[in-house]
Amino acid sequence: MELHELQINFTEALVNCKPDLIENWIITKNLSGSDRLQIHYNNYIQSLTKALRLIYPLIEKLVGIEYFKALAREYIKLNPSYTKNLTFYGEGFSQFLIHFSPLQSFAYLPEMARLEWSCHEVYYAPEGAIFDINSLRNINEGEYRKIRFNLNPTCRLLDCQFPVHQIWKACQNNPSEEIIVLNGEGDKLLISRIKGEVNIEKLSNAEFNLLAAFSSKKDFEAVSQDFFDQTDLYDALKKYIFQQVIVDFSI
Q1: pLDDT tens digits for 46-75?
Q2: Contact (Cβ atoms closer than 8 angstroms) between residue 110 and residue 89
């Protein structure tokens, strides 16, 4: 067997726990090849579980540590990692929770996972430029309607079915001590990074729709048609430029 083929077989044996692919190539005196591979497999599972626990601490708090570990093991079986960089491992966890039948009655959990993944992405996202207000002043007034404002790469918008912001706040303390009404109105959230810290802000429908319109690259003319009160629109623009949620524009 060539070295490259041996390496591929070892990886497959490890991530899929199939010792028969490599067992005959493991030279051992005491433990069997299968037992030695099991040690590596256990370490592999522990490393990925640790990565998931770091990204999804609220899910762990809501379901309990031991249940989360079992949950992580099932996720890892379906989503093996072939790289040593685990920074962005776990992106599909919210989708996994949607289809994980034992948790079907806890329909808010996938949205909590979406929130935690968005926070994780925001933390590692590259910083956007500082808005150049002078460039905006230099735009010909007749071109204003064509302006498309761009959101900071460190921002994410979430339109949620459940009151995840309230659940998130409850988890900072003890979720079992707070009564949360799950069949009420869902939250619209802005997740951003301010001075290196991830911030979660609950938005009004108008604020969310404005930022979502900019995120979808609508021009200023199309956006302004959805806002009957121009004062509110300009106040919102000033607010989000000042907060560096809006960092750039194009025509």
Answers
A1: 999 999 999 999 999 999 999 999 999 999
A2: no
Which fold is adopted by the domain 127-251? Outer Surface Protein A; domain 3 (3.90.930)
Nearest CA to 86 out of 126, 118, 44 is that of 44
DSSP state of 180: -
Nearest to 220 by CA among 144, 168, 167, 152: 144
Enumerate the domain spans of the chain: 1-106, 127-251
Closest Cα partner for 250 from 154, 126, 153, 150?
Answer: 150
Residue with token string 């609220």: 58
Specify whether the CB–CB gap between 213 and 222 falls below 8 A: yes
CA-CA distance, 75 to 223, in Å (whole number)?
41
What confidence tens digit (pLDDT) does each residue in 109-124 have? 999 999 999 999 999 9
**Per-residue CA distances from 61 to 90, 93, 94, 193, 209 (Å):** 17, 16, 16, 23, 32
pTM: 0.84
3-class SS of residue 127: coil
